[in-house]
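Q: Here's a chain of 530 amino acids. Please give me its 3D structure as tokens.
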Amino acid sequence: MIKFYTFILFLLVFQSAITAQNYQQRFNEIDVKHYNLVIAFNDSTNSIQAKMTVSLAFKQLVNEFHLDLVQKDSTGKGMHITSVFQNNDSVQFIHADNKITIQPNAIKIDSIFNFDITYSGVPKDGLIIGENLHGDRSFFADNWPNRAHNWFPCVDHPSDKATVEFTIKVPNHYQAIANGFLFEETNLTDNLKLYHYKTAEPLPTKVMVIGIARFAVQHLGETHNIPVSTWVYPQTKNQGFYDFANTKKILDFFIEKFGEYPYQKLTNVQSKTQFGGMENAGAIFYAEKYVKGERDFEDTIAHEIVHQWFGNSASETDWPHLWLSEGFATYFTNLYIQKTEGEEAFQQRLKEEREKVLNFYKRKQTPVVDIENTHLMSLLNANSYEKGAWVLHMLRKKLGDETFWTGIKTYYEKFKLSNASTNDFKNVMAEVSGQNLDVFFTQWLHKAGHPVLKTSWLYYQNKLRLLIDQTQENAFNFPLDVEINYTDGTSEIKTIEISKIPIPYEFETKGEVKEVKFDPNTWLLFEMAP
């Protein structure tokens, strides 16, 4: 997901309604296997008519279980349930506190049971119904982080993955896009059309979507047997087709880096998402205003494509581990920029991102893995994005390119179509490298802050003496590259290990020292003390 810090204050109102502990209790009781949503739209109202069949297994015998669904409130928005059936038999339910409490009939462990929930209403959020920038009516899901339960019953948490299918009934002047492959397209009447999409892979609810509008569609062909297409508003057809024309090239780059693409298609969609880009699985949504025919957001396209592997397929176990999604997408986008625009552009992005991390710390002193923050939208910050990316950059330097990439591929292979925590990632990288990474992960991810260095140097009789002091509260352990520039125009780089105990460093030099530069090749997240 593309960063959008200017909106964070407005979006802080979206708070996690249920704690991680409550969700863990659910995970111990039920396992959702499949969602099958039949949903109808019309042009006369914003109300949806829907029936959701939730297929799930019970992990233990329970008298009741819970699904998330926002209920109708005093404004008239929200969902009203008319019935709940279990395998064609009516069951008791209570819809309160934005949860459905269902009392199942006779159940047994590990068997699959189907619960049919019929409901209707005007979505409060999560499914955006209204006019697009051209004044045309449109319907776009926008679920991140836990807004899916505004429009369909679910376990609205990234750790509960399931396959999904959408049967969408719309007036026939619309086209519909969704996750998965198009299983059926039928004209039901002169005025009504049906689209039926199915996924083969389990998804977290945050990236389950539908999009309905008037579209111009361009099929770009296939790469690695993955069909690639562009869906944009007809009014911006030429601009949109131009903006997304490089998608196959970007996809090729990341397939080479990570391995097999996890989904059945890759579709770029102009939409009403509130984010710059939203990485919905196989159907990426972009803010409608981005499509201008200037091809100036290719880094956003790359960012969202990275998410197909990291965030969608290998998802974080819980929200505090969001850097495993956003930090990965940020860093690997930087590597795409390095490949396509060169080393100077790559270095510039690293420096700009480092500044964002330093500036964010001045406002908020929190770790990357922030277990205290329940305001999920506010996790979209420089810690999750830029600092997460910097951790990967420094880890790559620490392990070396070959080991780093072996570790990334091993991590993905182990957790694809599943979920991982920061500790899971650390353990994979430690096993692949044979190194103990506890200190590295603790200081950079589980504690706030970064090194703040006060430095001085003295050259005397072919010797260079360095004094490097960490002035921040908590000392770090890290390697620091030092570039020694000589008066004859030559230079060399020395690497020194900085620890919690400040000691002087002394080198034999090749001549008279003109200048000393610290971290000349931009490998360290730090700042210089004033």
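Q: Can you summarize the key feature?
A: The chain has three domains: 29-313, 318-446, 452-528.
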